[in-house]
Amino acid sequence: MTVTQPAMIQPAIATLTLNPAIDHTATIAEFQAGEVNRVTGEQVDPGGKGINVASFLAEAGLTVTATGILGRDNAGIFADLFDRKGIQNQFVMIPGRTRTNIKIIDSVQNQVTDINFPGLTPSASAIDQLYGTIATLVPTHDWFILSGSLPATVAPSIYYDWIKFLKAQGKTVILDASGASLQQAIPTAPFAIKPNLEELQEVLGRSLPTLGDRLAATQSLVSQGISTVILSLGAEGALFVDASTAIWACPPAIEVVSTVGAGDAMVSGFVVGQLRGLQLSDCARLATAFSMGALSQIGARLPPKEVLESFAERVEVKIL
Fold first, then answer.
1. Which pLDDT tens digit goes with each residue over 278-307?
2. Is the pTM of this model over 0.70?
3. What angle do CA 190, 194, 199 make, to 5 degrees?
4. Which of 37, 104, 160, 270 is deepest in the core (most CB within 10 A)?
5. Domain boundaries, the chain
6. Per residue in 181-207, is it b (16+ CB within 10 Å) or e — as a string?
7. How far apart are CA 31 and CA 33, in angstroms?
8. 122-154 tens-digit pLDDT
9. Same fold for the pair 9-190 and 195-320
C-alpha cells in the first residue's frame, strides 16, 4: 500500500483548533517526581490537535487551511510551521501567549508524563470573529476537522453549533473531541468521530470492558447517523465501524518514542484513505500506519514514506 501519495481527488480541508499549545518535550532518563532531574534532550513544537492534523495532511500532499485561536505574543512558531509545510494560516489572533505544555519522555521507564496548562481565554468577540472566518472558508473547503479541547470560557455547545452549520452547507465534518463537547455534538451526526476508550466511556456513562461492549457502543453511535466511528484502543489498535462493516486494526509492537499526535495522525490517515476512495479496511490500515508513524517520532511529523509503507503492511486487519 502506498501511503503518502496525494489523493486522486483533492478537496480543500480546513482544521479547527480552539486550544492550541506549544509542546516543549524534555527527554529525562529515569524521571523521578520530587527530585532533581537532568534533561538529556529537548524539542519545541507548535501543536494542538487540529494543527497536528493539518501538519500530517500537508505531509501527505493535501491542501490544508488551519484556523482557530492563537495568542499574538508567541504566534511566530506557528507561522513558521505553516510556511514550512504550505498550510494556509487563517487563525484569529488575540492578545496574550498560547500555552506551553510540557512533555517528559523517559525511555528507560517507558513513560511519557504530560503537564498541560489551561490555555487562553478568548473573548466573545474573538469567537464571533472565528465564526466569520469559518464562514469565509465554506465556499472553498469541502472537509472540516474540528479537534481538541475547548478554552474554559467557550461553551461546550460550540461544536454542536458549528457542525449543524457546516452540514447545512453540505460539508463533511469530522469531530475529535471529548467530554461535554463530544456528548452534545453526537446528535448532529458528524461524518466521523474518533474518541479513545476513556472518552467514549465517559460520554456513555458506563465501562466497556470487552470487545463486544465496545463494538455494540460504536454500532449504536452509527445507528444515530454518524457514518464512521473510530474507537482508539491504544496499543490494542482501533475499531473502525460504519453501517455495513466493523474492522479491528491491530498494529504490531513498535518502539514508542512519543504518544503526542498519535490520535491526530490516525484521523489524518483516515481522511487520506477516504479521499482515495478506499474501503474501510484499507482506511483502517492506513490510519493505523499513520498513528504508528507518529508514535515513532517526537512532534507531529511522519517518518519517511518507506517506513510508513512498512508499518501499513504489518497492520493486522480483522473483520468483526
1. 999 999 999 999 999 888 887 677 888 888
2. yes
3. 115
4. 270
5. 9-190, 195-320
6. bbbbbbebbbbbbbbbbebbbbbeeee
7. 7
8. 999 999 999 999 999 999 999 999 999 999 899
9. yes
In what helix (H) or strand (E) does residue 53 lie, and over which residues does it extend?
A: helix 49-59
CATH top-level class for 9-190? Answer: alpha beta
Reply yes or no on whether 264 is catalytic: yes
- CATH ID of 195-320, from 3.40.190.10, 3.40.1190.20, 3.20.20.70, 3.90.1300.10: 3.40.1190.20
Cell triple for 247? 474492522
Asked if 107 contacts 256 with a C-beta cutoff of 8 angstroms, the reply is no
Contacts of 212 (CB under 8 A, 6+ apart): none
What are the grid coordinates assigned to 243, written together? Answer: 453501517
Choose, from 23, 45, 264, 282, the residue flagged as catalytic: 264
Edge to edge, what strands does the sheet with 228-232 contain? 88-94, 64-71, 13-17, 143-147, 172-176, 192-193, 228-232, 238-241, 246-250, 316-319
Judge whether 20 and 48 are in contact, CB under 8 Å: yes
